[in-house]
Amino acid sequence: MRQNVRVLGVPMDLGADRRGVDMGPSAIRYGGLADRLDDLGFDCIDGGDIAVPRPEAGDPDANDLPDGRTKFLPETREVCADLSAAVAATRADGEFPLVLGGDHSIAMGTVDGATDPDEELGIVWFDAHGDFNTPQTTPSGNIHGMSLAGILGKGRFGETPWARAPGVSEENVVLVGLRSLDEGERKLLTESDVTAFTMSDIDTRGASTVVQEALAIATDGTDAIHVSLDLDWLDPTEAPGVGTPVRGGVSYREAHIAMEHVADNSASLRSMEVVEVNPILDEHNRTAELACELVSSAFGERIL
Prior knowledge:
Structural class: alpha/beta
């Protein structure tokens, strides 16, 4: 992968309960992302931000699905459609789309723009959470906890073509670092063909082994892969400024090792997003700066 990199910001917090992740794209930019990529030999182009409606201007309970609950569904659909178009345009221009969130609901837009009808796309999803709830199983109605289910057309998302991504098969989707699941999504996940590696797997087998296996599953028989990196994948002692922190995550070095393995598969990497950085909860922008470091590792930065 030696394309120009186009950064697309999505200052979105409609998919979450806690305000602040809408400032994530600015915090990551401020953390020095462009300079790090330039130092690696990439021409980093800032594509600006996708417009996001203000929560005060919408109805959080507006829902055009037959049943279930999804907060700010029309607004999320609008943002994801615009992001999908921006990612597709980036690819058409021969550039690599690097998307900065915002909450994890934006993944539905990123992945839709990264897919082609006649190709298969694998996904590696680094996250403390499964994001596998549907409008019927969600205890909160927050769409950031439904984004992977939406991409795979689970539940009522099967009736929403803007969410479900063509060319993504469950067999090539891998969750890495799970440690927090709701009961309904746990059942859906165990019944699916998605591969899920928990933190227990990482503890037992090591981060390097697990991530290499995850990438092998995602690349098996596919044309390309998408990497989705939620900063709450890391332990809160390393990344305090995230939307939904959960104790017991990966360490600083485990996260870098994982991204180094992503770089080893750069020929297959089509798109990447970094989400859930919350500067309100951060300490001196350290989580945003860590996000920049991890992106750099995914793009080939090494100690030697």
